[in-house]
Write a structure and sequence with these properties.
5 strands
Amino acid sequence: MPDRTTGSTARTVLALDFGLQRIGVAVGEAETATVHPLRVVVAQTQPGRLTAIERLVKEWRPSLLVVGRPLGEDGAPHEMTRRAERFARQLNGRFGLPVELVDERYSSAEVESRMRAAYGKRKTAD
């Protein structure tokens, strides 16, 4: 979280999971290697979504924005890939911050794997 007294952030990253209806937002701190979800941005228009993200950028003062880049299992781009890439360019143009695209093909599997490692295998009903 930004230090409101000094206005400094130690390498804060805002990560955005682009979707046509919703954009999931998480914040990460490189210094502590922690990430936690912030909120889901829901707005009917692209300008509305960008305005909501602008509020988060002003509050958290990130040094980097990360956007998930959806790809097919074979690594091939598709329509959502192009939309996420366009969204990343819009963020860069609007906020003047570096934006990195991150392959998100196996992010759900990675989360599940980490959950199993931390909490054990889920029990299923017979």
